[in-house]
Design brief:
The complex is a heterodimer of chains A (472) and B (457). Helix content of chain A is 77%, strand content 3%. With 472 residues, chain A is mostly helical. Chain B is 75% helix and 0% strand. The chains are: A mainly alpha (472), B mainly alpha (457).
Chain lengths: 472, 457
Amino acid sequence: MLLSFILIPFVTALLLLFIKNDKSANTIAIVSTLGTLVAAIAVAGNGAVDFNAPWIPVLHAQFFLHADGLAKILVLLTAISFPAIIIATSQNQPKQKNIFLSLLLFTQSGLMGVFLSGDALLFYFFWELALIPVYFLSSIWGGEKRIAVTFKFFIYTFLGSLMMLVGIVFVYMHTSDQSFLITSFAKANLTGGQQVTAFALFFIAFAIKMPIFPLHTWQPDAYEQSPTALTMVMSAVMVKMGLYGILRWLLPLFPMAFVAHINVVVILSVIGILYASFIAIRQDDIKRLIAYSSIAHIGLMNAAIFSHHQIGIQGAMIQLFSHGINVLGLWIVADIIEQQTGTRSMQQMGGLAKKQPTLAILLVGFALANIALPLTNAFVGEFLMFNSLFQYNVWVGAAAGVSIILAAIYTLNMVQKVAYGEVSTQINQMQTINKPAQIVLIVLLIIVFVTGIFPQPLFDLTADSLQQIFVK
Amino acid sequence: MNAIIVSAFLGVVMMFASWSIKGENKQKNIALFGLIFLILANLAQLNGWFVAEVDTHNMLSFTRFGLYTNTLIYCLTFIYIWINGEEISKIGNHAADFYALFFFILCGASILTSFNNLLMLFIGIEILSIPLYILTGSDKKSLFSNEAAIKYFLMGSFSTGILLLGITFIYGATGSFNLIPPDPSILNEQFMFSAGLILIFAAMNFKVSAAPFHFWTPDVYDGAPTVFTSFMATIAKSAGFIAFINIYLVQYKPFEKTWGIILPLVIISTLMVGNVTAVFQRSVKRMLTYSSIAQAGFMLFALYGTSSFANEGILLYIVVYSLASIGIFAVLIKMKENSFEAFHGLAKTHPLLAFLTTVFLCSLAGIPITGGFFAKYYMINAVLIAGAGIWLVVVAMIFASISVYYYFKLIQAMYFVPGTPAIGELDKSYTYKLAVIAILILVLGVFPNLLFNYLYF
């Protein structure tokens, strides 16, 4: 069953390489991703599931997949995001669309592998596999400065993953049974100093991926220059790889080193939150605004995880899912506007509410979720996270709390510029929005409010992972 | 023993074939059949069957590891000739002469995998090197080729001199050419022994082009005809590494105190020189030259090994690195010029070829699902198990991420820059042959243990 999450996209991706017709390629991709979604919903209902097969006996590496709550919630997010993205952008016509979609599905396969791997070497494999197609997608179909920007992103993340590889080998050597399984890793005999070494090596990889404050420079450029479908994948799902890595690998494996680094990381994260928020306020480019807002939100999740309280971590786990849905909605709206008006500058927008009331309503909905207003899904997670940060340290909590106000400023400013005011010439060009994209947005907005009002299923889903982390 | 006799014999056969058999294709096929025969003869020895009983007075010892390495080197040569045969015949007038030289090189390589005596090491290295000098200068009308050959010859002779001096010192200290390690207490008494070890270490570094003994490499590799650069940078270099491992990992491990101090310096400087200089190259051929220096830095990690990871790792590294390099040089041969610009737009006109090149480059960069990943993985593991310090590995990884820069520059040239590639004529079968290499690399990238099964059973 778990294998299907990796195999369905992978096989479809291979198949798509040979389908030259754009329309049928698109249909196949949609059917495949919807199939994955059905499987994800089915698995989310069950208890923890495992899949195990031998892989490299010499190294005792196993093809071990494990789905507990944390993995399931991210698998679910991935499974929802991909059909949503492909349907919403199906009007876009990149050249060689079949290859575009194929690479996108390879990415999905890699992401699923990252979230499901219970074996460190396998985890590393998928971690890289998710990266390679992104490199090609962005370098071929991206904006003007795509090659340099993607290269920067690629080398940054590759350096991080090599460090993680050293870390993996380092821990592997200290396991009693010479195995890459996460259970053996957790039992490895590491002294305090060794834990710090391993922690540092893993953390670099995750920090670059998220990204955390001084390492974030690749992100806004990469988001701006990537083709929109990819930007959506990156900000909705890929950045979660870093946070997932911390929750799955760092925290349980190196608890002593984790506790020792709480202060440094929380402070870096809070600096990052405020920094990104202030930059977001100054942005005129709607894509860059969403990118910086995303850095701020991810920074908050990281700070909450490192504040090391049960509620903060629970909040972060839920927010992993909610942030993905919200940011996806914002990107889709931004993409529709950009595709139809040809501009990303908010100065040239205005009057969307008069011209396209439905789209404006959807935009406002996602904008409110981005500010984490009560009744939206983000409120649940952020409330827990701020609670945890305040328990950790009042001043840090207060500093991070400022970000809510800042988020309100830049998000509402965006809504004001885009939706209200005089109808600008660019907005006036807009024609009716295609139905599929609209349906996707409505479904996403329903998820926003349903999980905002009844968050209990998300709590139940992540409960077992939370327990596991805190039992240790 | 079988391999040494048969390869020398086949070398002579090929020399005669050069005037008795006309037709380059026929000559190539004879060489390929010869290689199959050589592989079979070598495998026969693994199973206890000998061409001739020779008493070597323990100057040669045939271990399973050595014989298996032979097999791998022969198989690589087979792939090399199978792909490049046509190109070899375009250089000079007598292709069969080159095949003869290849067999002599293999003879030298076979000695290097089995020597148990410093004189045999010397003979092996000379048998290996002299044909290489000739191959470098084989493009008689090209000044670059001539210059490269002279340079290689002079520098090579010099390093052989150093090797001999080292051997003499060790003889002076121990009274024997045999590689059986003397009483470790000798180290405290005899300065000469340590000096000998370090001199041999330097000479071996020269042969595998490790910094700071790498200065000959760029000019020689660049000046030699590309087909032969491909051979020198892969198969000949691999044989040098096996000899290196044989001396220092197997025999002189107890004396790590002396040469072990220099090793990290050599590794770091090799990685630095190779990777950093490669970034600035404008010619793909020169970039590959520096990348081959950089890869040598990684292979030197095997010298730390105290575990099976070092032995297995060096074999895997040799095979994967050689396959990828043979592949990428084979693509380069078909280009009309060596610059990065020549590759612009290759993905549009030759999608399969561009994809295969990408696989080769990814393998050299060590990206998962290509064999290069596990090659690097084994090396890291070997060093960490030996307890050499994690900082060394971290530094190496930083250099590895620099290597991505120049390998991917070529991918960018092929995929993302529009243009017309300066590529010569290319028949389908050539691309399919390269596809075979790429498949081998990918298979080793998922199941590296396939390579080792035979090492033990």
